[in-house]
Amino acid sequence: MSTYKEIRGVNIQHRDSDPTAVEGDVWYNTGTSKLKMHVATESWASSNNMNTARYGVGSAGTQTAGLGFGGDTPTPAVVDIAEKYDGTSWTETGDLNQARYNVAGMGTQTAGFAVAGDATLVVAETFDGTNWSEGPDISTGRNTLAGAGTTAAAIVFGGTPGGKAETELWNGTSWSEVNDLNTGRRQVGGAGTSTAGLAFGGGPGTKDETEEWNGTSWTAQNALNTARNSLAGSGIQTAALAFGGSTNRTEKYDGTSWTETSDLATSRGALGGSPAGTQGTALAFGGTPPITAATEEFSTGVGTENVAVD
Length: 310
Hints:
This protein has 310 residues and is an all-beta fold. It has one helix at 4-8; strands spanning 13-15, 26-29, 34-47, 58-61, 66-69, 72-73, 77-78, 82-85, 90-93, 104-107, 112-117, 121-127, 132-134, 146-149, 154-157, 167-170, 175-178, 189-192, 197-200, 210-213, 218-221, 232-236, 239-243, 250-253, 258-261, 282-285, 295-306. Strand 14 and strand 15 (154-157) form a beta hairpin.
């Protein structure tokens, strides 16, 4: 059997206290008589609630600069309310021109995109950090669709009525219809860009199918471990995070397959995510059931574990 020195080129260090966290480091703590190592950690942590509880909320931005807009509230009432998240708390900002829920969102907090939603809306709006402006409409009215990209270059795909396969591309000026998804679906999750997009999950029912967009067409990839609809996403095509969907399950995608990781504290679907975020730093907010204002942050780090010695 190989020794630690043969593998790493050094002996295990003996320390009287734990060193600065560096993933993969192994040492013997003489104070506690324990063999220890630093390992990667992944977890969700609760943060301050949104001001308005809702589901079917659109989202843009990152974990520390998020944007939530539209949605349906407990009243019930479809709202035009938009809120900004600064990494700690939510603040109301300029309202959408068109109140709606089940809307596709993408972009950043200062350059956000809200597309379609409600019943079968075709309206697209862009956000400049203060106000929303209406732009050219998409061709196919729908809701519970997903999107990816920015206000300069984006795609939207899927949706309802039914389970739509239509995909539309935004070039910064106009929308054009492009190749369809292989599996038509609604309540679909999305991540990535207009040239490297990712579609996952959806309905009717619960689906686990995953597809990658290369700027021209969609290709089927390995499925989610947990089939579900109404889920949210964060990250890029080769390093994405999928979470929620009337469940608390979270999975990460490496460009080939999905791996389960730490669960959300609040199980929910029709929630907002962080389209401009990363696989390692994500934001989840709103959702149902019940209709909630709960906000959670996903982060990766390095923790300390005792090493079992047989």
